[in-house]
Amino acid sequence: MVKPDFFSPGQPLDEVAEAIWDVDFDNAITARALTIKVLPTISPILVVHYRAAMTREHRSEYRRAANGMQTKSMTLRPSGPVGAVLVRLKAEEAGRILGCDLADITNASIELSDIFGNREASLLAESLAAAKSAGERVARMRRFLLSRMEARRIDPVARGAILALKRDPAITMNQLVSHLGVGERNLQRRFKKQIGISPKQFARVARIQSVVAMRLKGSDWANVAYEVGYNDQAHLINDFRSLVGAPPEAFFRSTTEAEYRHWNARLAASDFYNTFLI
Predict the structure, then answer these.
(1) Range scoring the smallest mean pLDDT among 57-66, 132-141, 209-218
(2) From CA 31, how far away is CA 25, in angstroms rounded?
(3) Residue 2 above 60 pLDDT?
(4) Which of 158, 168, 200, 240 makes an SS bond possible with 248, Cβ 3.0 to 4.6 Å?
(5) Distance CA 138, CA 142 (A)
(6) Mean pLDDT of 185-199
(7) What is the pLDDT of residue 3?
(8) How many alpha carbons fall within 13 Å on the CB side of residue 49?
(9) Alpha-carbon distance 24 to 85, whole Å?
């Protein structure tokens, strides 16, 4: 049985994180039959699997990782019973927990031992495994995050650009540089140094994320295309297919017809709405 529970980070962690997700899925046979699709996202994810490891395309098994912003979809498969705690971080603040620039982990998955040290990462996983409930696991994760939380801030221009693009991914480059009061070349250089991709690439992922959020709330495709700033529905479909690997209508139909559509519905209502079981 799948038992996903979603938690608010709470103060002061809500400065750096958007949500915490506890997954408790202890049936090994059923778990190994699952396919988990994670769509492109601008939010880095910190994840600790305290039961079986998870596998990802072109990567061996891993248990503890920081997944950076992703510009393509990921397909994940459990290697056994799933027990995990995931933290969805804010792109503009992730470095305060991870101690690195987002550019270091964009389109990458880094072992937590490489970030926090093997002892700290191992103790965290052991602590989560020993907890008796989702609430206790989340409390232990919160304490770990608080112990790692720093005051550091990224480049203010890059940070301002991230916040502006999150609010309105359809903003033009001219509007963005005018808003920030810097030149375009200056913005491009500082943004890519901090984030690892250009503002336009970041906006493209943010736009797809908005498409997913609006569609899951029931908006029709014409309204989604207009509100998110696409030229027309054909533009939306082509962009979605390029980043996700399937046309939007076909993809969302598959998630509602699947055996775990109720699980997907709970995810859709959470901050982890870009994750689906298919």
Answers:
(1) 57-66
(2) 7
(3) no
(4) 240
(5) 6
(6) 95
(7) 57
(8) 21
(9) 9
Alpha carbon separation from 116 to 8, 87, 98, 111, 145 (Å, rounded): 23, 15, 8, 9, 11
DSSP letter for 19, please: E
The separation between the first and the last C-alpha atoms of the chain, rounded to the nearest angstrom, is 16
Hey, what are 45's tokens? Answer: 């994810």
Predicted pLDDT at 259: 76
User: What type of residue sits at position 138?
Assistant: V
Q: Which two tokens stand for residue 66?
A: 């920081």
Q: Are strands 36-38 and 275-277 parallel, antiparallel or unpaired?
A: antiparallel
Question: Residue 238 in contact with residue 199, Cβ under 8 Å?
Answer: no
Structure tokens at 77: 């498969």
User: Residues 105-116: pLDDT tens digits?
Assistant: 999 989 999 999
Give the burial class of 37: count Cβ atoms within 10 A of its Cβ; 0-12 exposed, 13-18 middle, 19 or more buried: buried
Beta bridge partners of 36: 76, 277
Alpha-carbon distance of 277 to 52, in angstroms, equals 18
Looking up tokens 């939007």, which residue turns up? Answer: 248
42 and 88 in contact (C-beta within 8 Å)?
Answer: no
